Amino acid sequence: MSVPLIVLVGPTATGKSRLAVDIACVLRDRGRDAEIVNADSMLVYRGMDIGTAKPDEAERRGVPHHLIDIAEVTERASVADFQVQARAVIARLRERGTVPVMVGGSPLYTRAVIDVFDFPGSDAQVRARWEAELDRVGAHALHAALAERAPESAAAIEPGNGRRIVRALEVLELTGGHRPEIPAWTYALTDVHQFGLNLERAELDRRIDERVEEMWRLGLVDEVRTLLGRGLRDGRTAVRAIGYRQVVAHLDGELTEAEAKADVQRATRAFFRKQLGWYRRDPRITWLDAAAPDNAARVLAGLDSGQAKEVDDA
């Protein structure tokens, strides 16, 4: 019997993690094992719990979760490495008849796992040189340097996205070219079923603002202080995560606490719009109303029937 791969995507704060556990519990009640595979780029870091809304043990309800807490904040996140790890986890689960439920809001990570998605090689010394240049001149100046060398690539990358600019310059130096476009929608894995959660945008904005307030109440500032003691500044990826970079700026005296909180809210709202833009271009996703109480049943019914139903884009 074929073992499906369920993929849950959508903007932050739509309840993807909770729905993934709901689906796994329904399947468990039906006598079929299911486990969660994380596809959020920041949940991989140990200690980054509050600012990532990482599900705790109670929220996981006994359902095993994979690819969470697998890296230190000093380590660099690599989507190419994550692709290999996630595909291996999915293969192992399927081999024993367990349904993988992959969930996350990092579109590049999701697509890298499920689609035909090849990555050019990398060179630590070349990347370190460009990262040093990023630190020296800033993202916008480095983007201008990329525009001189590869205008099409620069046009596809936001001037403030230092990580992508560095990666483009690294690939350009190593291969002589850089492809700015994302590969076509072609599954690399079999029996993939994608579902997206959608919310009216005013409601999503409200949820995001409430989530940030809750993160502060839960102790995000203290969490960041602890991570700084564990080398957060030494990492190239974790320290730039939304929430963490603003709190670091606050602790450095660059922002007041109120300014840091407001900036996290603004950055998260901007990020969700970018997420939605990515996902809305994928015609294979069946969209669900995130506020609907029966989404677990709808996902499993859609799995059985193979039917997709669009909801209006609020």
Mean pLDDT: 90
Radius of gyration: 20 Å
Number of helices: 13
Write the H/E string, N to C. EHEHEHEHHHHHEHHHHEH
The strands making up the biggest β-sheet line up spatially as 3-2-4-1-5-6
What percent of the residues sit in helical stretches (DSSP H or I)?
40-55%
> What portion of the residues fall into strands of 2 or more residues?
5-15%
Word description of this protein:
The structure is a single chain. The two termini are 38 Å apart. Residues 307-314 have low confidence and may be disordered. Helix 2 links the parallel strand 2 (34-38) and strand 3 (65-66). The chain has 13 helices and six strands. It has helices at residues 16-29, 57-60, 79-95, 107-114, 124-137, 139-149, 151-155, 162-175, 201-218, 220-229, 244-251, 257-280, 295-305; strands spanning 5-9, 34-38, 65-66, 99-103, 192-198, 286-289. Strands 3-2-4-1-5-6 form a six-stranded parallel beta sheet, sandwiched between helices. Helix 3 packs across helix 4. The protein is globular and about 55 Å long. It has 314 residues and is of the alpha/beta class. The longest helix has 24 residues, at 257-280.
Task: Give a brief rundown of this model.
The protein is α/β, with parallel strands linked by helices and 314 residues long. It is 50% helix and 9% strand.
Furnish the topology, listing elements before pairings.
Layout: E1 5-9, H1 16-29, E2 34-38, H2 57-60, E3 65-66, H3 79-95, E4 99-103, H4 107-114, H5 124-137, H6 139-149, H7 151-155, H8 162-175, E5 192-198, H9 201-218, H10 220-229, H11 244-251, H12 257-280, E6 286-289, H13 295-305
Parallel strand pairs: 1-4, 1-5, 2-3, 2-4, 5-6
Helix pairs in contact: 1-13, 3-4, 5-6, 5-8, 6-8, 9-12, 10-11, 11-12
